[in-house]
Sequence to fold (379 residues):
Amino acid sequence: MKTPSLRAFSFGLALLLLPCASRAADTNSPPRLIVELRDGSRVVGISADKQFRLRSALLGELKLDVNDIRGVQCVSSNSAKLTTAGGDSLTVSFREPVLAVNTSFGRVNLAVTSLRKFSVVPGAGSGAAAGLAGLWSGEGSGKNSMGNTDAQLKNVSVVADSRGQVFAFNGYNSYLRIPASVDFKPGPENGMTLTAWIRPDRAFGETPICEFERELGTYNGADVGVSFAFSVNPPSGTGAGCVMCNLADTAGNSHLLSSVPGLLAAGYWQHVALSYDGTSGLATIYLNGKSIAESSVGHFEPQTGFDLLVGARTTFGSPERPARAFLGNMDKISFYNRALSAAEVEAVCRDGNNGELPVVPANVVPPVYRNFGGNGYGQ
Fold:
């Protein structure tokens, strides 16, 4: 966690508190609030107020623009840990009794005492949120917070966790199925990024995180598009604890990348991301906000035009009994129809973990591993 000096922190907040007239014109769409309540409910919408009135024992009365906040974790009825867009943390109390949110079903006033936490997703054109086409959190359903492509839950439970409500997979026949969408077909120039928070109960055995499948339950490897997995054996991966991908393209070619083994740990919440830059041809795999594998794989259009499956591979199996299945929990699965930069991936990771990078077991040192060949995962 950042622990800035009072002078540095005050200066940073002073910049955030500059009058709106002194700022450059904001042409971005307004940020979205994803609010989780203490009873397990979730509300998604736009803040009815441009600023939040807060009080800090350290800095006194504050007015912070919603754009300058990334998350608030409520500690008690009126005490919360606030994380700014810059990653700084501050304990605050709310000066207003309600949080007003404009939702698809009208304006709702949420009592501050009912809040568990909320996150601020910057509007389109602002930071890492530009290009965010899908965001599936485990808050009671498979709803896509960014659009209409809601996930179908196949034997997936929603359970309470330190992160709130998360998806629970049984390692046998559970997965999310997200219908194909034009929003997930960025084209050959833009590239793409997949991210997810995962807590695997085991870190051995070939395990899918997510992949695109044309038709479920076939025995044809050509029916699999882009795939993202861990603990895949050679030649496609490097063994237990590796994180790997096959950036299958629309022409049916495989483009493989894998980290070294032994990086992913069982029993920990970890952030994984796969990014492909269509302009540079660079593919990168990230773990906990840091690059663990990268390779120049060329210029092509990734095959993301199929249904997106999370937590299973039905190819070479069936929809009722997938060939591979994830055991453990997942949260905040997201798809961007552009390549995020390394700094943006780290920011997304921090935003989902109260401004901090996840704690990695002491015996895990994530080197960068470059891979320039191999066969398709599971094909």
About this structure: The CA atoms of residues 65 and 344 lie 21 Å apart. Residues 6-16 form the longest helix (11 residues). Residues 1-27, 369-376 have pLDDT under 50 and may be disordered. Helices lie at 6-16, 342-351.
